[in-house]
Design goal:
The complex is a heterotrimer of chains A (96), B (485) and C (94).
Chain A (H helix, E strand, L loop, with lengths): L2 H38 L6 H21 L2 H9 L2 H12 L4
Helix pairs in contact in A: 1-2, 1-4
Chain B lengths: L4 H30 L2 H7 L14 H16 L5 E3 L8 E6 L4 E2 L2 E2 L16 H9 L3 H27 L16 H15 L1 H14 L1 H4 L29 H12 L4 E6 L4 E5 L11 E4 L6 E5 L8 H10 L5 H33 L3 H30 L7 H25 L3 H26 L11 H24 L3
Antiparallel strand pairs in B: 1-2, 1-5, 2-3, 2-4, 5-6, 6-7, 7-8
Chain C lengths: L1 H18 L2 H7 L6 H19 L4 H36 L1
Helix pairs in contact in C: 1-3, 1-4, 3-4
The chains are: A mainly alpha (96), B alpha+beta (485), C mainly alpha (94).
InterPro entries (chain B): PepSY-ass_TM (IPR005625)
Protein name (chain B): PepSY domain-containing protein
Pfam families (chain B): PepSY_TM
């Protein structure tokens, strides 16, 4: 009799951990993506506009990425989007 | 629970909403009160109640200028705030790390009015923008929770999208507690959506550089690297201020000068924030030696003025009293909406985690930000009238009363929640709010009796009426809890 | 005055919107009467409120229009809630 609820709780716990780790990845990704936009627009006269738009897009990006189904979410990250974002941010920050 | 879009969004909304919400209720309540920070400061300086309404005179300005020169000679950084419709006195202000404080001078002759020292409404402004934790860490936390609020709003919209329009006005107080709290949360959330998105987004943009310290932009409202007094190149400011004031008025218009800053090489007359929707810091500079106009410096123009637009929208200092009341009501309802969300969160988790320390703490934090904070705010107002006006550093003592009272209420909530009496704890704190709120007009009357109290429609009556209204609301709220629904 | 007229328009429009919703109709125990009129009020009055608000200067006009939507919604919601509580009492009593 106890196997059912215990199994459900374990499943819920696993889902909770998966969503938490997904959330952490997404927040880091969105932060870097926004930072990349800020650096790209840094020297333009309309930088202030890009910075304002970036701050609106960041929470939107977090929600959209969190809304993606599991397969599509993994695909998005495996496709190299994260590498591009990381690369742009790092390049613009003068790390390379 | 399955991994569906609705569940994912529900998880994101509830956890981001709860964790950010505990801080956001404080930020929103502080911001709501800070909408009338100047008026609250006036209420907290009852000596100003009997001051006759007079226009600023050249004599008063020159006298204030002499006092500023003395301060400048002593190496103190201060500025002179000019009388306005909201605050009819001259003020010599300096930043004490949390608020701009200093003596108030008569606009008629520049004499010291000997008002009591208080942080006044600026305590709420500091609580709102940096949680009273300074401009670096405090700003960063409020910035993070602002982004958290936007995430909670967007995910909430996805969850509720189908019923967004049909259930716009649906509130069923007779339904099960969880359902009626959800109705209240949704109704207030959707109706306040334009205000919440505008105020959160503009706030996030204003303090954006705190979250991205590696970028610099024109959004920051403060000049971070202002030069301090330069004694080596100090230039004695001997010129009277009144002729400069006349020239500054010719540039920005009558009544549009907000404050005067004294630099080693210049005296700058800044345009008032109330002068225009776009909040820029345009100023006319004069030579302190002979009062000669050096130049006029205008703030950002064109696309660069976006920062000023954001600040104008957020602070609404350009607005009429009616607009400030609109912001106040929307802010109060926004706080209530978030508190309803926090209550919903704990109701939802009572079934699975009832009796655990984690839930007791969640209940206690929810209670102490929802009711504890307004009680502490009223306690702050009470302390203003009960602490002797001439006591040294009484402004810091008032702030201590506010935070100690809030801490006591948190401890009360923790103890009562831990003992499983959370409902009684809500009632007790609601009673505290009712007593302090309903008693404030009486305290105001008694403490101003000696200084010629007269019943009239002014800031004192407005603050008293608001406190009384919130007190009555709290009394009604506790009676609703007592019904044990 | 402008704010008051805008508020009145929004309250009327949102009340009409509420009365058109099946859930609220069930709570109030009313049918879908005067549907056409309510729909017209719901569509026209927000535009009237906007036109009235536009007599103010620009950012204030927009803030006023949106602010009155929020306040009007709270008032209309309050009226509908009171009506639904009253409509429920006889049924509970019976």
């Amino acid at each position: 009799m106890t196997r059912g609820p215990a199994k459900a709780a374990a499943k819920k716990g696993a889902l909770w951990k998966r969503w938490l780790s997904r959330g952490a990845c997404i927040v880091a990704f969105a932060y870097l993506a926004t930072l990349g936009v800020f650096f790209l627009a840094g020297r333009r006269p309309e930088a202030i506009l890009f910075q304002s738009l970036g701050l609106a897009a960041m929470p939107l990006l977090i929600v959209v990425l969190f809304a993606l189904p599991k397969g599509l979410f993994r695909g998005t990250f495996k496709s190299g989007a994260s590498l591009v974002v990381l690369g742009v941010s790092a390049l613009q920050a003068g790390i390379f | 629970m399955r991994d569906t879009l609705r569940n994912r969004m529900g998880w994101l909304h509830s956890w981001v909403g709860f964790v950010s919400g505990l801080i956001l209720v404080v930020v929103f309540t502080g911001g709501t009160l800070a909408m009338f920070d100047t008026e609250i400061t006036r209420w907290m300086q009852p000596e100003l109640a009997v001051l006759p309404q007079t226009a600023l005179t050249a004599e008063a300005l020159n006298h204030a200028g002499e006092q500023m020169q003395a301060l400048q000679g002593a190496g103190q950084m201060a500025f002179l705030s000019l009388p306005s419709e909201r605050d009819p006195v001259l003020r010599i202000l300096h930043y004490d790390g949390h608020a701009f404080v200093g003596p108030a001078l008569s606009p008629r002759d520049g004499a010291d009015l000997n008002v009591r020292q208080t942080q006044g409404g600026q305590l709420f402004f500091d609580l709102h923008q940096s949680l009273y934790r300074g401009p670096v860490w405090g700003n960063m936390v409020t910035e993070i929770v602002a982004i958290g609020l936007l995430i909670a709003v967007f995910s909430g919209l996805v969850i509720h999208f189908r019923n967004l329009v049909p259930d716009l006005l649906l509130f069923r107080p007779f339904a099960a507690p969880g359902r009626s709290w959800l109705d209240a949360h949704l109704m207030a959330g959707v109706l306040m959506l334009p205000f919440i998105i505008m105020i959160t987004y503009t706030g996030a943009v204003i303090h954006g550089p705190r979250l991205f310290p590696m970028i610099s932009n024109g959004h920051g409202g403060k000049a971070a690297n202002r030069a301090g007094p330069d004694k080596a190149h100090g230039m004695a400011s001997a010129a009277p201020l009144a002729p400069m004031w006349e020239q500054a008025k010719a540039v920005f218009g009558e009544g549009n000068i907000g404050f005067i800053r004294f630099e080693p090489r210049t005296i700058s007359f800044y345009r008032s924030d109330a002068a225009d929707f776009v909040m820029t810091r345009d100023h006319v500079d004069f030579s302190p030696r002979d009062g000669r106009q050096i130049g006029v410096k205008y703030g950002e123009r064109g696309i660069q003025a976006l920062g000023g637009v954001m600040r104008g929208l957020h602070y609404a200092r350009w607005g009429t009293t009616g607009l400030r009341w609109l912001y106040f009501v929307c802010g109060a309802v926004g706080s209530a909406m978030m508190s309803a969300g926090l209550v919903l969160f704990v109701i939802k988790h009572r079934r699975a985690h009832g009796g655990t320390v984690k839930l007791a703490l969640a209940e206690a934090f929810t209670l102490s930000v929802t009711l504890g904070l307004p009680v502490a705010a009223l306690g702050f107002l009470w302390s203003n009238r009960l602490i002797a006006p001439s006591l040294a550093q009484r402004d810091l003592l008032e702030a201590k009363v506010f935070f100690l009272l809030w801490l006591c209420l948190l401890l009360h909530a923790v103890v009562r929640s831990g003992a499983g009496c959370v409902r009684a704890a809500w009632r007790e704190q609601a009673w505290a709010l009712a007593v302090l709120g309903c008693g404030l007009p009486l305290l105001d009357l008694l403490s101003r009796r000696g200084s010629g109290w007269t019943p009239q429609l002014d800031v004192y009556l407005a603050v008293d009426a608001c406190a009384f209204g919130f007190g009555v609301l709290a009394m009604w709220g506790q009676s609703m809890i007592a019904r044990d629904r | 005055m402008i704010a008051f007229v805008a508020l009145l328009c929004w309250v009327s429009a949102l009340l009409s919107h509420g009365l058109l919703q099946p859930k609220i109709q069930r709570l109030l125990g009313i049918g879908n009467r005067h549907g056409g009129l309510l729909q017209a009020v719901r569509c026209v009055l927000p535009v009237v409120a906007l036109v009235v608000c536009l007599r103010q200067s620009m950012p204030l006009a927009l803030l006023l229009w949106l602010g009155m939507f929020s306040l009007g919604g709270l008032l209309a919601g309050g009226v509908l809630t009171l009506a639904s509580v009253r409509a429920r009492k006889p049924r509970v009593g019976a």
